[in-house]
């Protein structure tokens, strides 16, 4: 039986899920799988109408299936190569040239199949074995990653502060890649009005704060465990490249455990990245699930289609806009729902990680969606050049600046007792000179800011909170910026801090 037809059709979407397992929910693969299977079956039916021979129709269909699901991968590889860069303006012809080569290859293979006088079913067994191996090996990798992700936290435990008792609600709001005021000035944007709005509400804004790490994964694992990764995550030394404990440290870090032990309800919002999502929280707040018949494309679905022969179509503005609609809607949803959480009963820890002002650069300052795809055409939503990318980043910043102060005011108005609110970035804008410079703002009940200081960094954020409001006894750590990433998460390369404004 030609099982390979269906297996070869479903393999690309399963493989893509494996490569992006930490980024997405597993159910996003459902529509790509249905599309792939339907495409394969329709292709076989059409081939049989012309060929009138099942084995030949099946093998001709297989040729087209392999071409369809591999063309985008090869095209993307060539477009990003040094060869395409050397061509300059002629690089747009790379896809056309590749398509012509692929078409000639398809014609040749189909001609060989159609003219063959042999029993073509003899090749079924080989194709079945190859395709089965691809699918089964991918399935094992998916299962391994799934169960690894389900493992409990490996973070080293520390003593929880004080006895279990009620305290203020705690809101931890992460604005991904939000830079410090002086670093935004270097990009051509003065956000003094936003900082003043927070200070008028009663916030303490740390004017010299820097992130402890340059990437989201390592930065959040560090902040949520109140320390540097070489101390708070089990490891084999600075050369250890095992990142699994780091990811686990985000989902079940010391901050969460301390507050859970004190009887706090954990409320987490959907961030859009599954490795950041606390799905096992007491309440997980996410936008309503999308219908199978929805015309919107999830980013995973867009990437899937972009790796097929539809790649030239997916680079057009109409589809590029659809690629990021989910992120746009998710941020608006979080800003709308966040104040409502304050009305719920009981002590609670609210964790919100929003992918803004980080790419994709999809917001205009008034909150409408940016329809000019030059602002988010490349990579994961960056501009076509540095100028567009900075302008898009500033547009995102202006939008969140216009909304967040009112969101905070609503939280305070809806809270029976004043909460602790932390608004913090995981890192700054991607330029190396300002990568570590972050927004770091605190609202404490009664504005008790004696323990805060301009240079405070995320490793000390919850040490101060627990010491101030939960009778903790956490010594403050030295505020340092460590220039390492997820490939070597336990390194100790300390960056020299820049001048404080």
Description:
- By secondary structure, the chain is of the alpha/beta class.
- 48% of the residues lie in helices and 7% in strands.
- It contains 18 helices and 9 strands.
- Strands 2-7-6-1-5-3-4 form a 7-stranded mixed beta sheet. A two-stranded antiparallel ribbon has the order 8-9.
- Helix 1 runs antiparallel to helix 2.
- The chain is elongated and about 90 Å long.
- The relative contact order is 0.15.
Low-confidence stretches: none
Helix-strand string:
HHHHHHEHHEHHHHEEHHHHEHEEHEE
Mean pLDDT: 90
Strand order of the largest sheet: 2-7-6-1-5-3-4
Rg (C-alpha, Å): 26 Å
Number of strands: 9
Tally of helical runs: 18
**How would you characterize the largest beta sheet?**
7 strands, mixed
What is the beta-strand fraction?
Answer: 5-15%
Oligomer state equals single chain
- Category from helices, strands and their pairing: alpha/beta
Q: Helix content range of the residues, please?
A: 40-55%
């Amino acid at each position: 039986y030609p099982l390979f037809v269906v297996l070869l059709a479903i393999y690309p979407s399963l493989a893509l899920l494996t490569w992006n397992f930490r980024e997405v929910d597993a159910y996003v693969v459902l529509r790509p799988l249905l599309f792939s299977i339907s495409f394969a079956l329709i292709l076989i039916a059409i081939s049989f109408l012309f060929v009138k021979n099942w084995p030949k129709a099946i093998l001709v269909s297989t040729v087209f299936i392999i071409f369809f699901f591999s063309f985008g991968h090869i095209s993307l590889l060539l477009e990003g190569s040094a060869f395409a860069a050397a061509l300059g303006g002629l690089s747009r012809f790379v896809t056309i040239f590749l398509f012509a080569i692929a078409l000639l290859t398809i014609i040749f293979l189909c001609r060989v199949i159609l003219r063959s006088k042999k029993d073509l079913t003899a090749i079924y067994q080989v194709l079945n074995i190859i395709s089965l191996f691809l699918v089964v090996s991918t399935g094992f990798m998916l299962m391994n990653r799934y169960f690894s992700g389900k493992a409990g936290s490996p973070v080293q435990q520390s003593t929880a502060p004080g006895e279990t008792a009620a305290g203020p609600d705690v809101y931890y709001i992460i604005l991904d890649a939000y830079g410090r005021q002086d670093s935004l000035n270097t990009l051509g944007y003065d956000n003094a009005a936003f900082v003043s709005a927070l200070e008028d509400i009663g916030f303490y804004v740390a004017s010299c704060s820097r992130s402890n790490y340059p990437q989201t994964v390592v930065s959040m694992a560090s902040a949520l465990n109140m320390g540097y990764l070489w101390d708070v995550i089990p490891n084999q030394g600075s050369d250890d490249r095992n990142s699994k404990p780091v990811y686990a440290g985000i989902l079940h870090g010391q901050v969460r455990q301390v507050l859970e032990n004190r009887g706090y309800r954990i409320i987490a919002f959907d961030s859009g990245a599954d490795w950041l999502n606390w799905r096992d929280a007491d309440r997980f707040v996410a936008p309503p699930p999308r219908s199978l018949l929805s015309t919107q494309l999830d980013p995973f679905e867009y990437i899937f289609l972009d790796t097929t022969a539809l790649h030239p179509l997916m680079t057009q503005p109409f589809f590029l806009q659809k690629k990021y609609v989910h992120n746009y809607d998710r941020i608006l949803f979080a800003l709308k729902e966040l104040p409502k959480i304050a009305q719920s009963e009981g002590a609670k820890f609210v964790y919100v990680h929003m992918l803004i002002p980080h790419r994709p650069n999809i917001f205009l300052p008034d909150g409408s969606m940016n329809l000019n795809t030059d602002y988010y055409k490349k990579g994961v939503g960056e501009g076509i050049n540095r100028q567009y990318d900075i302008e898009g980043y500033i547009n995102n910043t202006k939008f969140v600046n216009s909304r967040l102060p009112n969101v905070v005011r609503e939280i305070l108005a809806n809270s029976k007792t004043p909460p602790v609110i932390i608004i913090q970035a995981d890192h700054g804008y991607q330029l190396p000179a300002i990568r570590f410079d972050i927004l770091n703002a605190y609202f404490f009940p009664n504005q008790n800011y004696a323990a805060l200081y301009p240079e405070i960094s995320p490793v000390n954020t919850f040490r101060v909170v627990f010491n101030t409001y939960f009778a903790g006894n956490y010594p403050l750590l030295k505020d340092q910026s460590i220039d390492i990433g997820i490939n070597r998460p336990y390194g100790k390369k300390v960056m020299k801090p820049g001048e404080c404004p």
